[in-house]
Amino acid sequence: MIIESTRLGQLEVNKEQIISFPSGIPGFPNEKEFILIHSDIESPFAFLQSISEPNLTFIVVEPFQFFKDYEFSLDDQVVESLKLSGDNPPRVLNIVTVPEKAEEMTANLLAPVIINPNERLAQQIVLEKVSFSTKHRLFPEGLPETETKGGA
Amino acid sequence: MLALTRKIGERIVIGDNITVTIVDIKGDNIRLAIDAPKNIKIYRGEIYDSIVTENKNAAKANNLNGFNIIKGFTKK
């Protein structure tokens, strides 16, 4: 099937690639199906594109290389509803917000997206009793030099 | 909106399977015990609002500049 993305253009996806968010995403309760697009397999960043809403594209990031002390435990309810197990370990991604100054982009560590890649099930959870917030800068010392156009 | 007065130990039943019990009151703080099905997500209001706000910002603010940076970023 072809899905439309305002930012990424037309995307050809298999139904098996669709990740289901049975509870929606806070703020977007009706968006229950997304696909994960990796522009580069080596990149910790990816795009989470809504199947039904071309305008809805989240940037997501694998947190652990940016935030070494980021850890939390999952509630039994989350483990159960996402059908997680030893054979079905979770994948953790965090939604990125890019402000006008892109180098000040932040990751929402308070509400990680937990995915069961095998079952294609996901949920954005809200962590309890943690010191993480919705805004943690990914590049607190500015963008790495390799990021800038044409290099340094 | 319905407003109810309750005492410690009293309950409110919502629908067939949600029960809210007033466990304790100390000054401004009220402790509630909520019994609900697992598929009902329960959040503190202000935290839920902050997640909604952040998600909406993330959905609208990711401009092309951010996209380009991300496309060029690789693991080290």
Question: What would your notes on this structure say?
Answer:
Chain A is mostly beta strands and 152 residues long. Chain A has a single domain (2-137), classed as BH3618-like. Chain A is built from 1 helix and 11 strands, in the order ββββββαβββββ. In chain A, β9 and β10 (121-124) form a beta hairpin. The radius of gyration of chain A is 16 Å and the shape is globular. Chain B has 2 domains: 1-40, no CATH class; 41-71. Chain B is an alpha+beta fold and 76 residues long. The mean pLDDT of chain B is 88. Chain B starts with 10 loop residues before the first strand and ends in a 5-residue tail after the last helix. Helix content of chain B is 33%, strand content 26%. Classes of the chains: A mainly beta (152), B alpha+beta (76). The A-B interface holds A 7, 22-23, 25-28, 39-40, 42-45, 55-59, 65, 77, 80-81, 95-100, 102-103, 105, 108, 110-111, 124, 126, 134-135, 143-144, 146-147 and B 38-39, 41, 43, 47-48, 50-59, 61-67, 69-76.
Total count of helical runs of at least 4 residues of chain B? 2
**Parts with pLDDT < 50 across at least 5 consecutive residues of chain B:** none
Q: At the third CATH level, what is the topology name of chain A?
A: BH3618-like
The total domain count of chain B is: 2
What's the multimeric state?
Answer: heterodimer
Order of secondary-structure elements of chain B: EEEHH
The CATH class name of chain A reads Mainly Beta
Number of domain modules of chain A: 1
> Helix-strand pattern of chain A, N to C?
EEEEEEHEEEEE
Number of strand elements of chain B:
3
Low-confidence stretches of chain A: 147-152
Computed Rg of chain B:
21 Å
**How many strands, which pairing sense, and closed or not: the largest β-sheet of chain A?**
9 strands, antiparallel
